[in-house]
Amino acid sequence: MSKIRNIVILTGAGISAESGLATFRGPGGLWEGHRVEDVCTPEALAHDPELVHGFYDARRAALATAAPNAAHVALARLDAEWPGDLLIVTQNVDDLHERAGATRVLHMHGELRSALCALCGVRTEWSDDLPPGEPCPNCDAPALRPDIVFFGEMPYQMERIEQALADADLFVSIGTSGAVYPAAGFVQGARAYGADTLELNLEASAGSAYFAATRLGPASKLVPEWVDAMLA
Ligand code: BV8
Q1: CB 3.0 to 4.6 Å from 118: which of 64, 143, 195, 225, for a disulfide?
Q2: Which residues surround ligand 1 with Cβ inside 6 Å?
């Protein structure tokens, strides 16, 4: 444990499942009601803005009734107490890591509580419904869209993520199916740079074979146990 100084943690929808937020794949998943290409692509946004804005409005509203769970709280404690570098790279667009108190968080797929102007690129904090054609507070163009990275769009801050993976001594993946790239490839990158790798997930994922160790179970149990051991 003493040789570990820099940690990168990747989180996915599974870490928020016990907070009542639906995951994407699996029974009752978000995608179950929708085809991915109908709600999570630039083409969908152009073709049916009402559907896409409505899909994210519903998820933004669900945030109001969700609270961080023991896994988010444990990661926030590690963030506060870990003396080395630590970066929580989340694929999630909820704000549960921040509401648990974590500060070193990077949302690579965007955030529900942010609106992006498709014209001037300025972001505006947004907590209510975001109807299509809403004027941008900065440039006034009717071009505000959900600040979400759709399929075919470049995830945010990839250079910063790649640098963190290059510097990492430990890469931990929590609550993700390993179905979406480039996030699903981070474990291979981390290993190539010599990092140790650990997966904490409810079930085996598409990437489990790449991890040096995989522990199966709910994040609310596995993550506090792992953080306690890291801070012991
Ligand atoms: C890009 C928006 C390039 C936010 C999302 C290489 C190979 C193959 C394909 C590609 C490739 N490179 C690019 C692609 C295409 C594509 C892709 O990966 N397609 C897949 C489907 C094959 N990737 C992209 O398009 C990405 N862009 O690469 O751009 C580029 C280059 C130059 C110029 C321009 C562009 C963009 C990807 C982002 C797409 N946006 N969503 C939102 O709506 O929330 S993806 C969506 O899936 C979410 O972001 C989500 O985060 C992501 C991954 O899902 P998970 O988080 O893993 O959730 P899931 O339900 O799948 O799994 C939950 C897991 O939790 C399960 O394993 C379950 O067992 C576990 N679990 C459940 N309960 C618990 C639990 N674990 C613990 N405790 C519990 N209680």
Answers
A1: 143
A2: 12-14, 17-18, 23-26, 29, 40, 91-93, 109-110, 148-155, 175-177, 179-182, 201-203, 205, 218-219
Cα-Cα-Cα-Cα dihedral sign, residues 135, 137, 140, 141: negative
Q: Which CATH architecture has domain 7-21+68-109+155-231?
A: 3-Layer(aba) Sandwich (3.40)
Residues identified as active-site = 109
For residue 168, give the H/E element and its range: none
Please answer whether residues 28 and 22 qualify as being in contact, where contact means their C-beta atoms are separated by less than 8 angstroms.
yes
Mean pLDDT by groups of 10 residues along the chain of 232 residues: 88 97 79 74 95 94 95 98 98 98 98 98 98 98 98 97 98 97 98 98 97 98 98 96
- Alpha-carbon distance 75 to 165, whole Å? 18
| Domain 22-65+111-148 in this protein, CATH class | alpha beta
Q: Which of 180, 202, 211 to mutate to test the pocket of ligand 1 (most atoms within 8 A of CB)?
A: 180
